[in-house]
Design brief:
single chain; 50 strands; 7-stranded antiparallel beta sheet; 4 helices; 43% strand
């Protein structure tokens, strides 16, 4: 068989756990001691459960409740397995039951709690390697605490906040060194036995069933090795791919969970919000904008009838200040226009990314700035531009002094800068540019806004996608080459040829699908860079990766001569003994990816028989005038004009609406 450069994928394995396991029956398949369990629940149920070792508990705020063994149930997603099930009441359910707990008028996150409990006390200085998987009926998050026995609170924020998805197992892994903040409350030292997660949320309009499985809590003297779940914590993905020269469209989710669209650089000024203006300054792309000054005028203070009011104390007419920008417009909007001087938020510059900030992740921000007059900037984070999340996330008040000369700021370069809990779920970094309230002119150049590779999801780093179909050989030892036009890929990466493949961090990849762990789960997309010419890399009939040397599948790859101008010759080979049939229009779907320094262009690939491929007219792509004028879908099946979606006619693809 011909030597191929092949897209392959594997699971990245980290170091094995070491130290003392504090959890009994973590996989929930074995025995546990009679009358004792590693896993507990506390809720405010009036009557309490009737099993699972319940006992009354009193929370630190004086409210009562019950704590009890977390019930081990049949895993509803994988036959023959077991897991822990926790029902988290919504606020409405808790109110109806008469046991909703509140603090400061707000429904509390600790209305329902889940505990991982160690018989042995965990002392200061020890490392805890915590691993488990969790899934909910709806997506959510949970803050962590430390407790003595379950329900006896010591401190907050043991391992930050965990985030989990809906109807999909989310793997959680944390490495935490125990400090005095985990064992001390109000100056008193307590024995720390329990890691607690506060599960309730006002976002749950209905009850949320949570499931936990494969729980491990290992105590050791050395810092544990965290298994790499899909990226490199020491490699940063720069969302300013071309620095200030780019002003791409960005898509995120606002604070209500709705899609949010904007541009990379956005400027808010008294007239509204728009893409930040970019000019050439000294031969370099630079964001340039001016702030206005404002004036104060004294005018007569009129009553509701529009009449001047007498000043009964000083005599004459009662006066008031009115505030105007230098262009004559009133400061502010609506009924408050002109009543107050502008605040430091009057001018704001936003950098927005498709990446949702994760609590505790590393961030890097590198930029140059100067102004015509000395000034200062401070920072915020926003969900999207104008949707405030937190203040001072990358510093404090007046974070960055600005002078009349270019000054470079590097955050997270010489030492780690971590996303705070208050900034999580944000998409935008905001600069408040009216700290010094006067007319000024600002100049910004941005080099980097980066997050670690391991935290950047596939969708956040994908610049473009395309649907392609590839024919599979009917048998034999030679792969079947198919030429595909990749002009859009090159345009998306802003390159003319494939020389970028020699750059560090650029490669060919296969985004393969892993076999779902549990029944009903969606398969995960995982990937691995291929740095050398290989013979391996196969997918099965479901598109799942089955190994680098397993020839009982379909191989997709390239050889040394595959790159030709704006075309790539993909090679597909199907082992005739693999048992993968393409009869009756059957197809196999997988994904191929080309990476440029961590950024992806993804091909959604449909593998089909040569007969179906030819019938669809795809093979006539080089000579588009050939063909029979019939319509086919990507599976090679003939369709008529009523079919909605991507269709092929005479070798050309288009969307039929």
């Amino acid at each position: 068989m011909k030597k191929l450069f092949t897209f392959v994928i594997c699971v990245l394995l980290g170091g094995s756990a070491f130290g003392q396991e504090l959890v009994i029956n973590g996989d929930l398949e074995g025995e546990q001691e009679a009358g004792w369990s590693s896993f507990w629940i506390q809720d405010p149920s009036k009557d309490g459960p009737t099993e699972y070792g319940q006992e009354a508990a009193t929370h630190s705020d004086g409210t009562g409740g019950w704590k009890y063994f977390a019930p081990i149930v049949d895993n509803p997603f994988k036959k023959g397995n077991h897991c822990v099930k926790v029902h988290v009441m919504s606020e409405a359910e808790a109110v109806e039951a008469g046991n909703a707990r509140y603090s400061g008028g707000s429904f509390v996150e600790w209305n329902t709690q889940f505990f991982i409990y160690s018989k042995q006390a965990i002392p200061v200085g020890k490392w805890i390697h915590l691993k488990f998987k969790v899934r909910g009926d709806v997506a959510g998050s949970a803050q962590s605490q430390t407790h003595q026995e379950p329900g006896k609170h010591i401190g907050n924020d043991f391992c930050g906040r965990i985030e989990y998805e809906a109807n999909k197992w989310t793997k959680i892994e944390k490495a935490v060194q125990v400090t005095s903040s985990h064992t001390t409350k109000s100056g008193t030292e307590y024995e720390f036995h329990s890691v607690c997660f506060n599960l309730s949320s006002t976002a749950f309009t209905e009850g949320n069933n949570l499931y936990f499985d494969d729980i491990s809590m290992v105590m050791s003297d050395e810092e544990p090795v965290i298994e790499n779940q899909g990226g490199n914590d020491n490699t940063f993905i720069n969302f300013l791919k071309f620095g200030t020269e780019t002003n791409d469209s960005c898509f995120g989710t606002d604070k209500s969970g709705n899609p949010y669209a904007c541009t990379t650089f956005t400027l808010k000024d008294p007239k509204g919000m728009a893409s930040a203006p970019v000019e050439d300054v000294d031969g370099k792309k630079t964001i340039v904008f001016s702030t206005m000054g404002f004036t104060t005028e004294q005018v007569a203070d009129l009553d509701s009838l529009g009449q001047e009011q007498p000043d009964t104390i000083n005599g004459g007419t009662l006066m008031k200040n009115i505030y105007k920008w230098d262009d004559g417009s009133l400061v502010g909007e609506g009924s408050s226009a002109g009543t107050k001087e502008p605040d430091k938020y009057a001018y704001q510059l936003f950098i927005t990314t498709p990446h949702k900030f994760i609590e505790g992740e590393k961030i890097r921000l590198v930029f140059w700035v100067k102004a015509d007059k000395e000034a200062s900037l401070n920072t915020q984070t926003h969900y999207g531009p104008g949707q405030y999340k937190s203040y001072g996330s990358l510093g404090g008040t007046a974070d960055y002094p600005v002078t009349t000369e270019w000054k470079k700021f590097e955050i997270g370069v010489d030492e780690d800068k971590l996303i705070s809990s208050s900034a999580r779920n944000s998409f935008s970094v905001c600069f408040d540019c009216y700290q010094v309230k006067e007319a000024n002119k600002y100049y910004f150049r941005f080099e980097e806004l980066s997050f670690t590779d391991s935290n950047v999801k596939i969708g956040e780093r994908t610049l473009g996608t395309a649907d392609i179909a590839l024919p599979v050989n009917d048998g034999g030892d030679e792969p079947l080459p198919t030429s595909v036009d990749v002009s859009d890929l090159l345009n998306t990466f802003k390159v003319e040829n494939f020389d970028f493949m020699n750059e560090q961090g650029s490669a060919l990849k296969l985004i393969g699908l892993t076999v779902p762990e549990e029944e009903g789960d969606e398969p995960e997309e995982i990937f691995k860079t291929v740095d050398s010419w290989t013979d391996g890399g196969f997918v099965n009939a479901q598109g799942y990766f089955i190994g680098e040397e397993d020839i009982n599948g379909i191989e997709v790859g390239l050889d040394e001569d595959s790159f030709d101008g704006t075309k790539i010759d993909f090679h597909v080979w199907n082992n005739p003994e693999a048992g993968i049939s393409f009869a009756d229009g059957n197809t196999v779907k997988t994904k191929l990816c080309i990476s440029k320094k961590g950024w992806y262009y993804i091909y959604n690939v449909t593998l089909m028989s040569q007969e179906a491929y030819a019938a669809a007219g795809i093979s006539a792509v080089k000579t588009a005038t050939d063909g029979n004028g019939l319509l086919y879908n990507l599976a090679g099946q003939r369709v008529d004009n009523s079919y909605k979606g991507l269709v092929i006619k005479n070798g050309k693809k288009f969307v039929q609406k």
